What does this fold into?
Amino acid sequence: MTDRAVRKLVSSGAVVTDAGTIGDSILIVDGSVAAVGDRGDLATEGVIEKRYDGATIVPGLRDVHFHAVPYAALLEGCSLKSATDMEDLKARLVGHSSSIAEGQPVVATRFDDESLAERRLPTRRDLDAAISDRPVVIYRYCGHLAVANTMALDASGIAADTADPEGGSIDRGPDGQPTGVLRETATGLLSSALARGTQMSDEDLLVALEGLSGLGITSIGAMIGYGERPFGRLGAELELWTRIASRLPIRVHGFVITDTPARLEESALSLTGAGERLRWLGVKRFAD
It folds into this structure.
């Protein structure tokens, strides 16, 4: 006795691809697209139909450059994206600090200096004025810049005599002291306890990826950090991806952030074969 194939028909107002409108329905057999065309031709006896009258079906979307682990961390915690001015930004930090354990560092994300009334970057003095009894770090929405208060700088050993790392810089005042602004790889000088978000769990990342699938994104080019760069500070990303490979809701093409050929080779061996929806694709390097 053979099992009958499960046949489903998804009907809409139109199915549109780069070739134009090619019908109004998609026939799915055992989970795979079997045909695209007009409902009248595909709606055969026994097919299970789901109708979305007036809707438009398009192919899945691809985001070719995506920092998935930091993105997942942004979904929780303190966001400064809508802060209107420096006082509003500081008030949000103070409010968030009251919701976490005493002494725990305050780590916030998505601040946008171009949206602030002052049209400038905050400095450690601004952050000190808000919170001076615990470390504070805020990350710009682009992910390439962070601002730390005095306690965060001290906890990370960042001082006047700290050299700029390769590929990054520490903003300094006329007295040579750090202003708190850390650019590009200089954010990697911060203590690991001050990285964006908390230690990422498997479920946290899977929930974030499922959210992407709900937006129509079916594959991403994932930038995967080893930890030596600021974008790989949320735990061991390579191991995280290999652990969840068999459960991925979308296709993931990995670009590994590393300067070491040995680690690049290791990443290829780790990701290849980990899961049918996870693929090693290459290396991510910084050209700016």
Remarks:
- Residues 7-59 form one domain.
- Residues 228-235 have pLDDT under 50 and may be disordered.
- The CA atoms of residues 135 and 152 lie 4 Å apart.
- The first helix runs from residue 39 to 42.
